[in-house]
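Need a sequence for this fold. Nothing fancy.
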């Protein structure tokens, strides 16, 4: 019997850990799973453990030399000068024991989600451990070793021959995925992110539109720093609705970084938790309208792991399983009691943020107007295609 949605998770995913002080902290997975269980929205029966990706699957995107370097690095056998050539041993992507095993488990988790949907076991699948969208063919980058997003899309193309719409709402541009499919007319990438003027990786400009047969299937919406909910949601809803109608995908793959929030320590956007209610709502809607429900969602960035990520990511699962009514009012007391002592910041007590959380932005109107112009520029190619 088909399940409505599959939740891919195992505590083993927490082994992807650079060091104690690194901002990428997979404890956010544990916090999210515990929050969903606290409101009785997730049961053990709904959880499917990830498997490790094979070397052949990793090589759908990554070079064999890079994979071997990751294996050697995780065994402390790779000289640092060689490691740096592969983006390993840097401040962003330090070497840690068993890097290959931890990274291939993340990739395998996203492939597990893909197979669950494509084999008809569920309409939707969620793998919050995934979303590592910065990894390149031969180089780690931006906290990401293997790029599970790119590999899963290549896997979808090879095994199932489907047209894939990839929607990335991380505050950082989804560069690794974009460049992997920049010339592929059967993969459309849409990234809505903070402008690279201030933020890593510095790419994702409006004029990056694809090349060769893939021209016209890459979309970027770089938003100004301090963008708030209304402007962010206008960009998201307008671009997603136009792009999905234009591309007509067979499946939606969404990357759900939770770092556009005002509290996030690594970015400069000013969104509240409200956008994280709306992001999965529209993804869910278009999946049923265009793709017979086929929707894979993964995690991504999100560096306020206590106040933001558990709530933001819970909304994805609650949307997938039609349990939105369980996320209203106050957060569960047992969850707050369990984690308050460990949290370095006061935990929120309600699902939604206070209306006065974000201070008044002096350039609010200017930012909104600029963002609207960026959206129009990004979507101009769709308008031109209809002429």
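Here you go.
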């Amino acid at each position: 019997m088909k399940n409505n949605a599959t939740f891919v998770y195992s505590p083993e995913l927490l082994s992807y850990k650079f060091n104690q002080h690194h901002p990428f902290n997979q404890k956010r997975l544990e916090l999210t799973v515990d929050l969903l269980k606290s409101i009785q929205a997730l049961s053990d029966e709904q959880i499917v453990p990830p498997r490790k990706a094979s070397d052949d699957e990793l090589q759908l995107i990554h070079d064999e030399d890079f994979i071997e370097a990751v294996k050697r690095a995780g065994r402390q056998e790779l000289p640092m000068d060689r490691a740096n050539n592969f983006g390993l041993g840097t401040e962003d992507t330090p070497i840690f024991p068993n890097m290959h095993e931890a990274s291939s488990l993340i990739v395998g988790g996203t492939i597990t989600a893909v197979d669950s949907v494509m084999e008809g076991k569920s309409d939707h699948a969620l793998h919050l451990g995934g979303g590592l969208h910065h990894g390149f063919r031969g180089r780690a980058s931006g906290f990401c070793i293997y790029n599970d997003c790119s590999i899963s899309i290549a896997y979808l193309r090879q095994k199932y021959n489907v047209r894939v719409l990839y929607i990335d709402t991380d505050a950082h541009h989804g560069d690794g995925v974009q460049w992997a499919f920049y010339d592929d007319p059967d993969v459309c990438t849409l990234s809505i992110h903070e402008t690279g003027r201030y933020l890593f990786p510095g790419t994702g400009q409006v004029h990056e539109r694809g090349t060769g047969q893939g021209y016209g299937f890459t979309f970027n919406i770089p938003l100004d720093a301090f963008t708030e909910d209304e402007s962010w949601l206008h960009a998201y809803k307008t671009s997603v609705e136009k792009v999905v109608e234009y591309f007509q995908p067979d499946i939606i793959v969404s990357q759900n970084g939770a770092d556009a929030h005002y509290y996030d320590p690594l970015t400069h956007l000013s969104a509240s938790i409200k956008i994280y209610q709306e992001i999965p709502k529209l993804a869910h809607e278009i999946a049923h309208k265009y793709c017979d429900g086929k929707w894979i969602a993964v995690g991504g960035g999100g560096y306020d792991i206590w106040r933001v990520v558990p709530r933001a990511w819970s909304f994805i699962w609650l949307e997938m399983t039609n349990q939105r009514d369980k996320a209203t009012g106050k957060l569960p007391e047992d969850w707050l009691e369990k984690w308050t002592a460990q949290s370095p910041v006061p935990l929120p007590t309600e699902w939604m943020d206070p209306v006065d959380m974000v201070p008044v932005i002096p350039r609010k109107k200017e930012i909104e107007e600029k963002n609207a112009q960026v959206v129009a520029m990004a979507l101009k190619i769709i308008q031109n295609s209809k002429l």
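For context: The mean pLDDT is 97.
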